[in-house]
Structure formats: structure tokens, C-alpha cells
Amino acid sequence: MDNENNRKSLWDDEDMQEFEDTIAIYNDLTRANMNLISKIQEQLKRNAELTSVMILCIIAFGLNLLRMISDTTNSITEFEPRKERRRQELMEYLVHTERSRDIIHMGPKTFIQLCERIRATEVVKDAYRSTVEEQVAKFLHIIGHNVKNRSVSFLYYYC
């Protein structure tokens, strides 16, 4: 029986040693997992910071592009010299002939002053297809002669 008790106690010691080894391995794994989790958290924090910096850079770049686009004038002179020539011919026709009173019911000097004031407000701007002067002249012609837009476009295209 002593033999059996000795075997039992040896077995118990082995079991105890195995249990302690298992706990030690478990503690090592837990420590390793905690270290891994903390490193992953640090990496995620760095990634979040870098992402926010990148988003801010993209927003700043977009705002800068918008500012640059809004600073450029949208005049027809930038797009096509032929249209600028036509605009000059129209202005010469309206300003240097007495026909301006017949067409827009306004004197040349008054027309130029009106266009300058409207341009200064920046409510009406040069567009790709027409300048402020053309837009004002068309408007005055429509109001003064009670005509439709089609006839005005035709008239100002060939002036």
C-alpha cells in the first residue's frame, strides 16, 4: 500500500508540475497577447492620426484648388480670340456710332458707365459665351424693343 501511496504522490507531483507548467505557459501566452494587443492599439492610433492628417491635407488641397479656380477670370478672352474680336466690334458699334440710341435706348457713355458699375458689383460676370457688355446690351434691347431672346442673339452675333 505504501507503494501505491508513493505512486499516487508521485503522480500528484507530476500532475502538479504539469499544472504549474500549463499555468506558466498560459501566463506567458496572456502576456504575449497583451503585448500584441497593446502594439496593435498603438499602430491603430498611429494609423488614425496619419489618416486624419491625410484627410486634412486633401481638404486643404481641395480648398486651394477652389480658391485658384475662383481667382481666375472667366472671360471669353481666355477661351477664344475670335469671340474677343466680336465683342470689340460690338462695343465699337454701340459706343462709336449713334445707332446705340436706336438699339439700346442709351447713350454710349452712359452705357459704358452702367456696364462698369454692374461689373464692379460682381453679380454679373463675364461668361464663356458673352461679356457683361453683351449681356447688358441684350437685356436693354429686349426691354427697349419688347423682342424675344432669339432675335437678340441673332442681332448681336452679326454686329
Label this structure with key terms.
single chain; 159 residues; mainly alpha; 2 domains; 6 helices; 82% helix; rod-shaped
Determine the number of helices (DSSP H or I, runs of at least 4 residues): 6
β-strand percent reads: under 5%
Tell me the major beta sheet.
none
Q: Which ranges are low-confidence, i.e. pLDDT below 50, for 5 or more consecutive residues?
A: none
The rounded distance between the terminal residues' Cα atoms is: 128 Å
- State the share of residues found in helices, binned by percent: over 70%
Radius of gyration: 42 Å
Number of domains: 2
User: What's the shape?
Assistant: rod-shaped
The total of beta strands comes to 0
| Element pattern in H and E | HHHHHH
Structural class estimated from helices and strands: mainly alpha
Average pLDDT for all residues: 77
Please, could you describe this protein's structure?
- The chain is mainly alpha-helical and 159 residues long.
- The chain folds into two domains: 1-72; 76-158, no CATH class.
- Helix content is 82%, strand content 0%.
- The protein has six helices and no strands.
- Helix 5 (132-145) packs across helix 6.
Topology record:
Layout: H1 2-71, H2 81-96, H3 99-104, H4 108-121, H5 132-145, H6 149-158
Helix pairs in contact: 4-5, 5-6
